[in-house]
Amino acid sequence: MAKSVVVGVDGSPSSLDAVETAAHEAVMSGVGLRLVHAFGWPSIHPPPGGPSWNPARAGVRELVDGTLAEAGQRAREIAPRLDIRREVTVGEPLMVLEIESRTASLVVVGSRGLGAFGSLLLGSTAVHLAAYAHCPVLVVRGPLNPAGPVLLAVDGSPAGERAVEFAFAEAKMRGADLLALHVWNTWSELAYEDPSNPLNMVVDIDRLRDEEQRLLDETLSPWQTRYPQVTVERRLVRSRIRPALIEASRDAQLVVAGARGRGGFTGLLLGSVSQALLHHAHCPVAVVRGSK
């Protein structure tokens, strides 16, 4: 059975935007769409002898039904024939969506929400999903630019291979060009392992540029063979990595990055580049974790 696209729904304008994006993704992928609404039990306890909290009596059921009905209508406007299913779960949204990601092809969330979704990108929800989800996570943010390319942040790491594959597949489905951007600087060079003076090194800029170009070419060549219909621009830029990618996202319809690349601490599940894009990119961001 084909995996569905899952979208987190809470009734906020941002989550409704995410529903529209998720519907597009489901249609392009030829799979169904699951609208998931999660709500937590109150963190405070009722006073002794007071009535217990009952979702039905509190009107929560009607509120949730209305929220999902509106989300379903937005999805139907995008894709009238799409297979749409609704799911209501009691639990923390980030944990519910993490569990949903185990059987999903893609999880889509908005950049701002209500309640537990309200601090998305300012808090831990997007970061948690990007770090722990079992499938790619697409965070809908910024204006939509359907004429722009799919922007791929190339880092050349083994963990980034799934992000490269995802970016090529998205470009093919969207009929878009792929801009493969590899940003490098002198910090891309590993320091010599000299315990007497580990930071004393001389960088051959021309050699380093050639190595980074080779890394970019070797990363893309196999996938260009698999996706010959995708027009690819290979761009090598010497700059600061995060600002360069954020600036390039201004003209993109989607930016795709791996959860973590070559740099940083090996124990981290989400690197600084993907976190920076989640917070500051000017278009939707897809974060793709590498294989375990």
Describe the structure.
By secondary structure, the protein is an alpha/beta fold. 36% of the residues lie in helices and 20% in strands. It contains eight helices and ten strands. It has helices at 13-29, 60-78, 93-100, 125-132, 161-174, 205-226, 241-248, 272-280; strands at 4-8, 33-39, 84-90, 104-110, 137-140, 150-153, 178-184, 232-238, 254-258, 285-288. Strands 3-2-1-4-5-10-9-6-7-8 form a ten-stranded mixed sheet, with helices on both faces. α1 (13-29) crosses α2, α3 (93-100) runs parallel beside α4 (125-132) and α5 (161-174) packs across α6. The model is unreliable at 42-47, 116-123, 189-200 and 264-268 (pLDDT under 50).
Beta percentage is: 15-25%
**Average residue pLDDT:** 83
- N-C termini distance: 23 Å
Percent helix: 25-40%
Work out the radius of gyration: 21 Å
Number of helices: 8
Question: Regions with pLDDT < 50 over 5+ consecutive residues?
Answer: 42-47, 116-123, 189-200, 264-268
What structural class do helix, strand and pairing data support? Answer: alpha/beta
Largest sheet: 10 strands, mixed
| Strand arrangement, major sheet | 3-2-1-4-5-10-9-6-7-8
How would you spell out the order of helices and strands? Answer: EHEHEHEHEEHEHEHEHE
How many distinct beta strands?
Answer: 10
Backbone shape:
elongated
Give a nutshell description of this structure.
The protein is α/β, with parallel strands linked by helices and 292 residues long.
Salient structural properties:
alpha/beta; 20% strand; ten-stranded mixed beta sheet; 292 residues; single chain; 8 helices
Question: What is the fold's blueprint, element by element?
Answer:
Blueprint (H helix, E strand, L loop, with lengths): L3 E5 L4 H17 L3 E7 L20 H19 L5 E7 L2 H8 L3 E7 L14 H8 L4 E4 L9 E4 L7 H14 L3 E7 L20 H22 L5 E7 L2 H8 L5 E5 L13 H9 L4 E4 L4
Parallel strand pairs: 1-2, 1-4, 2-3, 4-5, 6-7, 6-9, 7-8, 9-10
Antiparallel strand pairs: 5-10
